[in-house]
């Protein structure tokens, strides 16, 4: 089930396609300028041009690499470890891209935001999930990643006796696009196959090492110096909501309700349950706003069982005026259906509609509820489990949490307005052995609607800090107790909102979310700004380096993985009881490379194309 576009937004969608257009125009003008300078022979000798990309060459640093390459046995052992890591990652990337392409071709779905081609680019403002405020951290992380990657190649060149013609960096406008080490071709051919493989693996080895170092520093002293500031963190405000009318904005903290201090997000919700239709809200401990609460639909299932849309207001239930979520539940009571008086968004006339009040779920084929009702694939509303009334999906989950596989439950549901009561024997959850499974996929909220009487969406500040090794509790439990578990979750943070795991993406302590945190402990003497800058640099350095490592391990030319595949294939073929030649190696490497390219393109474009 898919919700329509939520009315609650975290950050305005600045620029959108306009920004992308200006970026393209700027690049074209930049390219034209490079062509003109090259034709006029005004580019310095150390600057090369390949299309819109400038390469800056230097021979400096070779003496340093010669000195650093002194302990050759150590660096060979280091690179050998990298070869093992690279081979495992190469195989993983091959399988991942292949399975992703197969899924895209066999189960086409409308292309989601994360699958848009522009979101492959790690460019803030162009990529939907990377705000412009993250630019400094991303640029620094990218520079560090490129330097250590190519530095690793250069170092192992000297360890293996391969000469270096030049080194440098490639720039796309002002963006560091890549770095390079230019080995001497003849010298490279004379190196052993093992030496070449170690040289190609050294870059990704260094990227993964930098990832571990950066995240170790972030999860340790830096995140440990950051605490969640008191109050409820406002991540988003619904357009036309009571909060917006009162002047509440994203990145505000609600520090008190009617004069009572608010400790955190949960405390805000608890206080609102016992507050009236009009509340006094203190923001950031500095200013106060009066909010006239009203029940707003902030999200709704597309084509769902209830004909309401985002932006609609529920003003009465069975003739009783309601302005809060608790007032709504109280007005419904034990009735399974209710007549809602609705003020549609953008319409001055109120309408009445009778709807069942419960948990909206989609019935899974051949599972427990389908066996009892025959409603496979349909969206129905469950209003009761046994004698217990169910007002929303959270209540349904609570009722099922205490059940066991094999239990029999009476389930009351509505489909297309028709009531049904069935005895259901619970099955076993396919992904959680030992847990009961009703055979449903649920939508949060009431009857497929998310209701909010204030109009704010709360930012999970404590959750993000816990993932990054700071104080507080995480809903991921044991995962965040391990270093690798933290890294895995941290890598998801810039996309975690669009994946539906948490309500907002995390792009570092930037863009205003710093207001939700404060610096504490011995490092507080450095100042909030310094600690947040360090945290952002470490986060993006770790994030970018692991992405560079994985990307370069893709077994396709001209990436390092393609070269490692070639040398590894040569080593295997040379040991076979057949007359080996370059053609055999070329067949393997070309086949794998084309498979990767086709899989990558299919993952990006096939779902949207086939679904359309």
From TrEMBL:
PROSITE patterns membership: PDZ (PS50106)
Keywords: Membrane, Transmembrane, Transmembrane helix
Residues annotated as transmembrane: 19-37, 77-105, 129-149, 200-219, 489-509, 521-540, 584-606
Keyword DNA-binding found: no
GO biological process, one term: membrane protein intracellular domain proteolysis
Gene3D superfamilies assigned to the protein according to its UniProt record, in alphabetical order: 2.30.42.10
Domain PDZ: 231-287
InterPro entries named among the record's database cross-references: MBTPS2, PDZ, PDZ_6, PDZ_sf, Peptidase_M50
Domain of life: Archaea
Main location (coarse class): membrane
Localization (cell): Endomembrane system
Any one of the GO CC terms: membrane
Gene Ontology MF: a single term: metalloendopeptidase activity
Membrane topology: Multi-pass membrane protein
Protein name: Peptidase M50
Species per Swiss-Prot/TrEMBL record: Natrialba chahannaoensis JCM 10990
